[in-house]
Amino acid sequence: MKYETVIGLEVHVELATDSKIFCSCSAHSYGAEPNSHVCPACCGMPGMLPVVNKRVVDYGMKAGMMLNCHINRTTTFDKKSYYYPDLPAAYQTTQWFAPVAVNGLVEIETAKGKKNVRIKQIHMEEDAGKLVHDIREDTTHVDFNRTSVPLIEIVSQPDLSGADEVEAYLERLRDLLRYAKVAECEMAHGTMRCDVNLSVRPEGSSVLGVRTEMKNMNSIEAIKRAIEYETARHIDALENGTEVLVQETRRWDDIKGKSFAMRTKETAGDYRYFPDPNVMPVVIDDEWFDSIQASLPEFPEVKRARYTEEYGLSAYDADQLSKSIALCECFETAYAVCGNAKDSANWMISEVMSILNARKMTYDMLDINAKALGELIKLVSDGKVGRANGKKILAAMFEDHGIDPAAYAQANGLIVSNDTGLMEKVAKAAVEADPKAVSDYKSGKEKALMALFGKCMKELKGNCDPQALRTVLIDMINKA
Ligand code: ZN
Ligand code: MN
To answer: Distance, CA 127 to ligand 2 centroid (Å)?
Structure first.
């Protein structure tokens, strides 16, 4: 019998806000002293009063709009009860009855073609703390720095049917949320985590099989392996009766390449969801809604189409630039200043992106003065600064936002001088110093010219028009 795998995902994404969801503690405590970013509110002390961080709602709405959701104009918070040492209040404040966004749609593309994945809902909630197990002391410590860091949980319908679709879906979510600048979505940093709900059924059947859930997956490769393993385990159970499948939560061990039962699955009833009386309902009026809608970015594919059709870029260039909204914004600003799309794309891809790669920075970390980049590109294409010196100026611009490329070039002797007298003087000295290169060139060795040309260019500190120098140099060789 042929089987199909049915997968739904719950994806937790840490929002890129400065402060936590219900208090003003910093949401960024990576590497900080344990329990140094805490207050009575995020530690769940009795009597504390949470206040909703407006930016969290902004980002929740924005995420909902990017995923084509309906936005609930009145959205409320609820208590989800469970007892665990990483949750000091013994309940998580989350959304159950009126989440910020519902009924969305995300289009994904795999080798099989395009497909829509339905989004059941997006809810805003607080993260839990971290337990740190100390094996030597046989103790466990708890760090509350992460409690109440804002999350959204994106719950899909069971519309995914294999590892390739899951990968495409996660990448699409990541791209859309990064474009909207609401989240970093970096699985390796824990800012995107994924629960995989999986069941198997005979192909063509409309009845869902027994579902198991693998929690807190944080690498796409591990997720793919886990899906393959779980699918095989379910089919084996159905075909050969190797075990009785039960609805449960399982832990994926990526080193052993196996999943293990953790606990039988809780149902919603177990959590005793009830409206949190301490958190006021959030009412989103038209003005607020419209301002968020107006702030949405173009989708990556819309940008790519515009770059090729309107700006005349190649598909490759458009593809490279659309990898990150930060690259797109820098490119668009530079182009607006210098007026040359192809040159701008070329500088972005050959120079800016290589510097980021060399510094092991993500494209989203790009932080240079894009207007100044446009001015620099213009200086180089107008022949006022040589390309190699342009690169030097760019490197300096990565360190200092205040650099004015023209003034910087002037101050550092990087302006091209088309002083023919000077070029002749330098060419003459080079020719006289290396008679062998001259005779080599005359006997047809093109390379010998390049060696002389390089010496002259170095002597002139790159500040001359390469074409003019070449002409002067050949003249000088012929005279020699
Ligand atoms: Zn706090
Ligand atoms: Mn959750």
So the answer is: 8
Closest CA to 63 of 146, 152, 126, 136: 152
Tokens at 415, concatenated: 């302006």
C-alpha–C-alpha distance, residues 106 and 301, integer Å: 13
Q: What residue has token string 């720095």?
A: 145
Query: What HEC string does 294-360 produce?
Result: HCCCCCHHHHHHHHHHCCCCCHHHHHHHCCCHHHHHHHHHHHHHHCCHHHHHHHHHHHHHHHHHHCC
What does the alpha-carbon distance between residue 273 and residue 271 come to, in Å, rounded to a whole number?
Answer: 6
On the question of pLDDT at 265 being above 70, the answer is no
Give pLDDT tens digits for 448-468: 899 999 999 898 888 888 888
Interatomic CA distance for residues 275 and 423, integer angstroms? 80
Ligand 2 centroid distance, CA of 43 (Å) = 18
Ligand that comes closest to the CA of residue 39? 1
Neighbours of ion ligand 1 (CB under 5 A): 23, 25, 39, 41-42
Between the CA of 86 and the centroid of ligand 1 the distance, in Å, is: 15
CA of 84 relative to ligand 1 center, distance in Å: 19
Q: What local confidence, expressed as pLDDT, does residue 144 receive?
A: 96
The domains located in the chain, with CATH, are: 3-286 (no CATH), 298-411 (no CATH), 420-479 (1.10.10.410)
What confidence score (pLDDT) does residue 415 get? 87
Question: Which ligand is nearest to the Cα of residue 26, counting in written order?
Answer: 1
Question: What's the whole-model pTM score?
Answer: 0.86
> Which residue's entry shows tokens 């994106």?
154
Q: For 324-347, what is the mean pLDDT?
A: 97
What distance in angstroms lies between residue 173's CA and the mean position of ligand 2's atoms? 17
Q: Which ligand is nearest to the Cα of residue 128, counting in written order?
A: 2
